[in-house]
């Protein structure tokens, strides 16, 4: 593990809906770190991840990821950049009508040529990478099951395999366990930590529960109102600090169903949340 | 109409096959154009200056009754089943294209975004993300369209666009009600058969 910073941010602001939803004075992340971001909904964790993924454009400031400064101008390098940054989501975001194998293969799409992907001609190397990813998540016996027939935990494991298949350098996990049972959450986080160790990936997880962050992260960054309010080692995170991070509005979060989230007192459906970031081609 | 005159059996057989062929050719030709146009008409995939005109064109096509379309094509390419095929195809583009667009607009964008996140290009996202999500509904819509087109194409003969309708019209004009009755029975059976096929397809898909 090196200490070379692969993510650097300076005076970064993301401005949307008439306010700064993210403003970070300074943040450096070294290769191989395992960081948990904690904070309420609307605290900017997801925006930060989406910015690192290249979905959200910083309004001002300097962001440099893997030596590439954001936003990325040309289309071609955007694809290459996307490939290097893996991301899993709260709702797994698999193609439910396709099989586990096909979903994992989607991770290779950034590498295969146009014609090969049109005719679904997989190379031996691609197949081996996908199989290896499936073995990592212990799903090699469910290759031909349709993704929508799997349980939540299994779907998240498929999503992890898909991300591994894209051979990323940085692994972003945006609330990976928020729609899973507590027991399953630990399985998934164990798995995430172990695969990131195996492949020497930098792991950034956003979590609702500080208890999980304490257990799984090597460094915790707490956010509130789009700002970083605490950055330190897990054992230094005190009870009072957690109180301050979450404030008194912790109880009103509508987490779990994924349809409504309280953000500054406004209910947003996920369609509205994605309105600012239309699907590709738009 | 009673007793039915079964001497028209020969005509009936030929005309039914023609109607069926017209429907199948028209529906598939329409589908061929409706799917790509449907993607263009989906507001979450194309900018407003593309999807609005395409949607408008489809609405315009839908507003023209099938018989009028058939009349237009008869005067353009002559009598026979060919103008029937074209009329059904054009009409299907209008109707199917709209269904395709609405189906695409209601798909979950998050898996597509996740696919983009793996580095997939737009074409790959359509092929591996969008099409698998909408394909069952797309085929179901095509089956319904086939069923409706079959019903519609039985009367296309009225304006000279071939099929059973032409003979119905012919025998009505000659007051040969016994023969007309047989043909009407055939239309009912054909439409029933079409609905059965379409129902079976949809039952397996959805």
Write up what this structure looks like:
Chain A is α/β, with parallel strands linked by helices and 282 residues long. Chain A is built from ten helices and twelve strands. Chain A has helices at residues 45-53, 75-84, 100-105, 114-118, 124-136, 152-165, 182-198, 210-216, 239-246, 270-275; strands at 5-16, 19-30, 34-38, 60-65, 68-70, 85-88, 170-174, 202-207, 219-224, 227-232, 261-263, 266-268. In chain A, the strands form three sheets. Chain A has a six-stranded mixed beta sheet with strand order 6-7-8-3-9-10, with helices on both faces. A four-stranded antiparallel beta sheet of chain A has the order 2-1-4-5, covered by helices on one side. A two-stranded antiparallel sheet of chain A has the order 11-12. In chain A, α5 (124-136) packs antiparallel against α6 (152-165) and α6 (152-165) packs parallel to α7 (182-198). Chain A is globular and about 50 Å long. Chain A starts with a strand and ends in a 7-residue tail after the last helix. Chain B is mainly α and 206 residues long. Chain B contains eight helices and no strands. Chain B has helices at residues 9-40, 48-63, 66-77, 81-105, 109-117, 122-153, 164-173, 177-205. In chain B, α1 packs parallel to α8 (177-205), α5 runs antiparallel to α6 and α7 (164-173) runs antiparallel to α8. Chain B is elongated, with a radius of gyration of 20 Å. The mean pLDDT of chain B is 88. The interface between A and B is medium-sized, with 41 and 29 residues.
